[in-house]
Task: inverse folding
């Protein structure tokens, strides 16, 4: 039992040890200015990817040996699924952001304020490269490609989804991000469990972060943060649209007939 728990946790430990050392080294070289935080985050996340991919390949090999290779996805359906999953997850992410913003949590969480300051610091291209490409690759390979699979083999799919999402939330440290990341992590885990493709989770995670950056830069949909009737209604519609889209892609038989091989 202890070995099984360690087998789930040590990839997370490896990720944060390697990225922590890289971040510390970059801090010594570049200093602690908030403006260069995302550059350090970019580098420290990127150096973990080779280690994570190695572990992920082992997981993929194990599943191939046990279950065999799945059917090859028709290209047209793959593209359509990817687009819809990105849109659906981004809607859920924006709705969760809105609902959390309507509570006192953001004002009372100093950890979130500091994390938010760092997330939106630096140039927009660095933020997009870091938050929408490199970090989603690293985190999805880790939590949905490795942790989700290992927990599922120990228990079942439902517990795999639950525990991988909770662990994803815990590593974000503060309560605001814990709630957001845990709930978003459930959606990402369901995507991977139903499609068997971590690539879809990477794309959906990246698109959700991109939506947050675009909203911050342009001020679009700022009205939906307000805890009034319009903000609540719009946020509820966003959430329902996201859930409906994911349900359609993951559970509908109609989409499975779409696409050409």
Result:
């Amino acid at each position: 039992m202890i070995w099984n728990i360690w087998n789930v946790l040590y990839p997370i430990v490896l990720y944060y040890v390697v990225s922590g050392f890289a971040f510390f080294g970059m801090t010594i070289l570049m200093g602690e200015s908030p403006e260069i935080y995302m550059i350090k985050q970019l580098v420290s996340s990127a150096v973990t990817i080779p280690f994570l991919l190695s572990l992920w390949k082992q997981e993929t090999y194990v599943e191939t040996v046990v279950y065999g290779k799945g059917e090859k996805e028709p290209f047209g359906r793959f593209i359509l699924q990817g687009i819809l999953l990105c849109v659906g997850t981004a809607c859920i992410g924006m709705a969760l952001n809105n609902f959390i913003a309507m509570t006192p949590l953001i004002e009372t969480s100093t950890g979130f304020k500091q994390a938010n300051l760092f997330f939106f610091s630096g140039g927009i291209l660095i933020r997009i490269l870091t938050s929408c490409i490199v970090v989603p690759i690293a985190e999805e390979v880790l939590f949905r490609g490795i942790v989700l699979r290992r927990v599922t083999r120990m228990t079942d799919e439902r517990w795999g989804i639950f525990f991988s999402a909770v662990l994803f939330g815990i590593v974000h440290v503060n309560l605001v991000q814990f709630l957001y990341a845990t709930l978003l992590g459930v959606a990402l885990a369901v995507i991977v469990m139903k499609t068997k493709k971590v690539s879809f989770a990477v794309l959906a995670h990246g698109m959700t972060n991109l939506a947050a950056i675009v909203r911050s830069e342009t001020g679009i949909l700022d009205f939906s943060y307000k805890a009034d009737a319009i903000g609540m209604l719009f946020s509820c519609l966003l959430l329902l649209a996201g859930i409906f889209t994911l349900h359609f892609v993951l559970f509908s038989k109609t989409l499975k007939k779409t696409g050409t091989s």
Q: What stands out?
A: The radius of gyration is 19 Å. Residues 2-256 form one domain.
